[in-house]
Amino acid sequence: MKKKLLAMLLAAGMVLSLCACGSEEKAKEEGTATETTTATTEVGKVSSKDFNPDDYVTLGDFSTIQVTVDVVNYTDADVETQFQDEVEYYVDSMDLYKYTPVDKTTVEEGDVVNIDYLGKKDGVAFDGGTAQGHNLEIGSGSFIDGFEEGLVGAKVGEKLVLNLTFPEEYHSEDLAGQAVTFDVTVNSINEKELPEVTDELIKSFDLGFDTIAAYKEDIKTYLQESCDDTNKTERETAVWDQVYALCTVSDPPQEMVDDAKAMVKKNAEMYASYYGVDFDQFITEYMGYTKESFEEETNTSAIETSKEKLVIAAIAKKAGIELSDEDVKAAAEAEYEDYGYESADALIQDMGEGTYYDYVLSAKVYEYLATCVTIVENEPISILSDEYYEMEDEEELDEEEAEGGDIVVIDGDEEVFEGEDIEEDYVEEDPTEELILQTE
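The structure corresponding to this sequence follows.
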């Protein structure tokens, strides 16, 4: 898994740069930006076109290759399932449930209680610690330790005082580790249910959709794009793995390897800036490396990436695929907005002319290879099915076992709409909702 993360840092420079550039501005505003040391102006300058690939690569015969690939699709039932999952998510996130008092008088674990509360430190109410008519599910862990537990056994109409302590790691310095009291009144024990799904409810999510139909249409579009992207990646990966295995590659030029290593460091520094930590802290705490192991694995990955670029260049040469400056610029013109850049030149400059050239060339070569080999598709499975997620999990597990690495997860780039995983950043918090009691 660590090797996979390094490969991501190496090969996905454009996406990483986009993420980190926007985050770097945020970090500067928050005063958490860290200095980077890589001379980024030269990173990405070297490309495969600077060398004769025939000096390093012996191509195999891939004309008789047959590749079997998995295929995903979606159905109308998947759209409905995804729609319901997302409606429930947003209703829960924005607390749009319908609450009805029940004929029950004693609070138990799992109950939804309607309460008024007033939080005080040293006898003085603190900001964000007061609410009236708040609905709280006992056992949800929404409030600090002891709050929900302290309500179990309370009677409807009862007023009680909870003596609690905020956790040491609490985000508010004024409250972290501090002893406080909460005056709580239990108003009722409620039953919660999803509201009727109407156009008005969808509009209240503030996602840009005024009707149920418009929201479902957007889900269809996203699922189709997800299927297309997944299938394209699956085909390209399967074909490339077999073609590359037939090739023999000698040690790549050191200049090429050094440039690839610099790209890894540049992107790791950008991520470090995003998280407001220095480079050394990022590779140790976020990636799970020591300085020495990071350098070793970076060098290994850079060599492998350089070899792959040379093989791509050799195939391009054999196939008569050539890229002019105009071709490269046209590719950037077609996608710079997708990656948040102001112009094609800005995209190319940020990635590096050499890196972007190889990126465009690889896309041309993948298209060519797809015409040279026989591709057999397995029976399609739903992109939202358990079978698909089990397949993804098995691939992750196989890689982890093969490489002996730890699973490393970096937040921030996860897509929305895949299964029930919906990124919380897509929900705008109600500015009137006080979150001071939440432990996260």
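The first strand starts at residue 57 and ends at 58.
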